[in-house]
Please model this.
Amino acid sequence: MAIIEIDKHSGYCFGVVKAITKAEEHLGNKEELYCLGDIVHNNMEVERLEKKGMQTVDYNEFANLENKKVLIRAHGEPPSTYKMAEQQGLELVDATCPVVINLQRRVRKAYQEHKNDGTQIIIFGKPGHAEVNGLVGQTQNTAIVVEHLPDLVKVDFEKPILMFSQTTKSLEEYRQVVEVITTRINSAVSFEHYDTICRHMSNRVPQIRNFAAANELVLFVSDAKSSNGKSLYKACKEVNENTFFISGPDDISELDVAGFDRIGISGATSTPRWLMEEVRHEIEKKLQASVESAQEL
Ligand code: SF4
Model:
């Protein structure tokens, strides 16, 4: 039978572990708990916690809550959310990742120091992403969000620039943006850039490439809406053509897993370990069934 290995580097980062642990502490005490946005970009994990009593609310629903307990997930929130919570008598369980808190502080400090000198603060990140909203909120919503090179059209290259990155962006794209700004900016003005990409994320790419190379078949487990999942899957597929994106054990029935000596299971930073274990169990069942049917012939 094939060796089936779960990638030891895959699964939750410590920021997500902390948020889920906090949620479970409150749910374990049978307390009513709301979560502003999905606690993690994985529907199955959200459903598991909702079965324990957690209720996920969007921003409209949040605006109508009063005197409730609300969890702030690892991505963090802008100051306006904390202000609303205060006005509505909400008790916040703040699970913002410490790395994100630190980044918010740096962006706020930069804004305070430069708000009157014409410096443009750029956040290299995905517009509308919760973490990016939290960072832009530190600048009274004046920061310019750049996701891809064409977005640099929003930037004035005659004025100083200070750039930070969303923690989950790709290091490679960050370097490209830095390079283009360096070439285009007026040499008489300053350009400071801070690579604030979380190393838990950037290290995952070389790690997953090694993992993909070491296995004949790779099953990448992730929710389709996880952007981190999409980029890690891409990195895996570039190294090993035999890589398949699945959302859980139910997808195994569609795949041919027989005939491989080494099968690897990996996932996004939002993929729970229990889900990858279930995938492993499903593969074992399928391989066993194919051995048994071969013996019957
Ligand atoms: S990826 Fe990094 S910054 Fe983001 S939640 Fe995880 S540990 Fe925190």
The longest helix spans residues 273-296. The chain has a mean pLDDT of 95. The two ends are 18 Å apart (CA to CA).
